[in-house]
Each structure stands twice: as structure tokens, then as C-alpha cells.
Specification:
It is a single chain. The radius of gyration is 21 Å and the shape is globular. Helix 1 packs parallel to helix 2, helix 1 crosses helix 6 and helix 3 runs antiparallel to helix 4. The protein is built from seven helices and 16 strands. Strands 11-14-13-12-15-16 form a six-stranded antiparallel barrel. A four-stranded mixed beta sheet has the order 8-7-10-9, with no helix packed on it. Strands 1-2 form a two-stranded parallel sheet. By secondary structure, it is of the alpha+beta class. Strand 7 and strand 8 form a beta hairpin. The protein folds into three domains: 130 residues, HUPs (Rossmann fold, 3-Layer(aba) Sandwich), CATH 3.40.50; 55 residues, SH3 type barrels (Roll), CATH 2.30.30; 78 residues, Elongation Factor Tu (Ef-tu), domain 3 (Beta Barrel), CATH 2.40.30.10.
């Protein structure tokens, strides 16, 4: 229970359905400046909100201190990615390791049968395939299946997503009916561990980041500007570049070895992308090409593509039509209709 409306209503629905519900909050970092920001989750005020909801629902509530694991698995992962010229998505790491590995294992070790969260997604058992399927949430505007592609059968069999068939408006109405004070609480949108000064300050505080200005080059190798430091930029970015020439410019390449950024007046497009850390929701990983639709960013459009499994848990995704470049560190998720097939993390590999 994060202290938001979604996890609060999820707990309420499960209790109404007859489950014996125990609320669990996570202490993931020392609040500090983060607590002053209105659009982040998992701070001390949020844990207080979760505790009050648990009191209203008459369920026990406990807080697990996972600061050390979160620091290593999420914050350091985020910093390492930026230092390597990537644009990491820490929410994916948090889901994969914190929620659906560490938290799930601890809950099961304490005798729980399931772990439930407030994600807008669905788990459906298919008797014909004898497998659990990960499906999109019915509310397309709130579907969060993109962030859950790494869930495999052993985890899907132990997860409940009570909000998967609901709209956000319905969730808020239920919370208001139950007199939960979080019924109109704003949604968290920013990175929970980044303070008011932004992620650049976090990188600087790590003592490992160098914000070295460097050249901005055009396609001919001519210097057209000076960048502030690679961590301030991402592939495809077109605002705040510092290019000295008129027109619209896009970041089309970042080279950490030369501390250089290359820009062009057109976004870079590619026919394929390579992925690492690829996983599939089915217990049997595909041995050949797949015909699927892929999503390259949260709430992005579905794109016809063909993932090709490679060795070492990697894959190559071949697009049916050239697509704007996807930044290394971001996820590409495979869908077939409403079903999530799998996905992986984009790696830096020129094609």
C-alpha cells in the first residue's frame, strides 16, 4: 500500500471479496527534499496515508524497510545507466526487483497466498494453455501492463490486480464511498527518489558523474554547439539542445567515449533494435520469430514488428516500417492483442 487511491481501493475490494488482507508499505529512501514534491510516491506522508486507510478498512498494516536493496537495485541502476549514456527507466527495475521479487518472496515466506497491487492490468488463467496470461487493463488510458512485461509464470500465479477491469473514475468513486481520505489524492508522476533539484543533482551527489561540456556535431562532423554534459540529453530529444544554428534539431547519437552528441534536422529512424534482459510471460520461450505489435514507450502506439530471439537472453526486434530511435535503457514490450508476450531493455548497438 503506497498511500495512493489505487492500492487503497485494491485492498478494500479484496477484503470485500473475502480475502484476509494485510497492508504492506515500503520505506525505500530517506525523504528529505523529495518529501516536498507533490507528485511523488512512497514518502513518509504516503505511508501515513496508507496507515490511515488500513485503519478505516480494519486491516493490519506493516512497513518493510527496503532502503538498502532499493538503493542498489534502483537508484544505482539509474545512475549507472545515465553514466553509460543510457536513459534508464527506474520504474521497471523497481517492479522487477523490489515489488515482484523481494516483496513477493517476503510475503510468501510469511504465509501469504498472493501479492496484490493497484496496477491497472489483468492476470487471466487459460486452461487450454495451462498458463496465466498477463493482459492489458481494460481502461486503455490507465493500462500499466507495459511496466509488467517481466512477470513470468511463477510470479503471475501469485499476483492479484483487482483494478484491472476498472476505470480510474470508478476507483475514485469507490474510495469516496468508503470515506477514504485519498479518494482525490493526486497521482504520482515523478521519480520517487529524485528531489526538487532534479536528477542531475542526484547524479552529482553520487560523486561519480562528470558533467563535462562537449561538442554538439552535425552529420558532417561540424561543431554546431556545446552541450552541458551527456546526462542532460537523450536520443530523440529536440528541446534545450544548445545548437547555435536555426531550425529544429534532434539528438541522433550520443558517444560517451568522445563526450559528443550528434544532431540532425530529422529524427533518426531505424529498421530494428536490439534488446537485452529479454523475458517472456509464457513458460516456454519462443525459439523462432514472432509476429507481434510492440510498444516502445509507455502509452505509445502499437507498432507491427518481429522479435527474433538471440543467445544470452537477448533479441533483435525488426520493425515492419522504420521507427524513431528508441533510447538505450528504455523498454520495448511485445503484445498480441491484449496479451503481453514479453519484452526487454534496449541496448546500445549501431545497426
Amino acid at each position: 500500500m503506497s498511500g495512493g487511491v489505487d492500492s487503497s481501493v485494491a485492498a478494500a475490494l479484496l477484503k470485500k471479496q473475502g480475502y484476509r488482507v494485510i497492508g504492506v508499505g515500503l520505506k525505500l529512501f530517506d525523504a528529505g527534499a523529495v518529501e516536498e514534491r507533490p507528485n511523488v510516491c512512497c514518502g513518509l506522508r504516503d505511508l501515513d496515508d496508507a496507515r490511515r486507510v488500513a485503519q478505516v478498512l480494519s486491516i493490519p498494516f506493516y512497513v518493510l524497510n527496503l532502503k538498502g536493496i532499493f538503493r542498489k537495485a534502483v537508484i544505482d541502476y539509474f545512475i549507472d545507466g545515465y553514466l553509460q549514456g543510457e536513459t534508464p527507466n527506474p520504474c521497471l527495475a523497481c517492479n522487477r526487483i523490489i515489488k515482484f521479487e523481494v516483496l513477493l518472496e517476503r510475503c510468501l515466506a510469511l504465509g501469504a497466498d498472493f501479492l496484490a497491487t493497484g496496477h491497472y492490468a489483468r492476470v487471466v488463467y487459460d486452461p487450454g494453455r495451462a498458463e496465466f496470461l498477463l493482459m492489458k487493463g481494460l481502461d486503455a488510458r490507465k493500462d500499466q501492463s507495459y511496466f509488467l512485461y517481466m512477470l513470468e509464470q511463477d510470479k503471475l500465479s501469485r499476483l492479484l490486480f483487482p483494478l484491472g477491469e476498472m476505470a480510474k473514475e470508478t476507483t475514485r468513486r469507490i474510495a469516496a464511498t468508503l470515506n477514504l481520505r485519498v479518494h482525490d489524492k493526486r497521482e504520482s508522476q515523478d521519480l520517487c527518489f529524485v528531489g526538487k533539484a532534479g536528477y542531475a543533482a542526484l547524479l552529482a551527489e553520487s560523486g561519480r558523474a562528470e558533467f563535462r561540456p562537449g561538442p554538439i556535431l552535425n552529420g558532417r562532423g561540424e561543431v554546431v554547439g556545446v552541450h552541458r554534459g551527456l546526462p542532460f540529453y537523450t536520443l530523440g530529444q529536440r528541446r534545450g539542445l544548445g545548437v547555435s544554428r536555426p531550425g529544429r534539431w534532434y539528438v541522433v547519437d550520443m558517444d560517451p567515449s568522445r563526450n559528443a552528441i550528434t544532431v540532425n534536422t530529422e529524427p533518426r529512424r531505424e529498421n530494428r533494435v536490439f534488446l537485452r534482459e529479454v523475458s517472456y510471460t509464457s513458460r516456454v520461450s519462443p525459439s523462432g520469430e514472432l509476429e507481434v505489435e510492440v510498444v516502445t514507450r509507455y502509452r505509445g502506439k502499437e507498432i507491427p514488428a518481429v522479435p527474433v530471439p538471440l543467445s544470452g537472453g537477448s533479441a533483435m526486434v525488426r520493425f515492419k516500417h522504420p521507427q524513431e530511435v528508441v533510447a538505450p535503457g528504455q523498454a520495448v514490450v511485445f503484445y498480441r492483442g491484449d496479451e503481453v508476450i514479453g519484452g526487454g531493455i534496449v541496448e546500445r548497438r549501431r545497426v
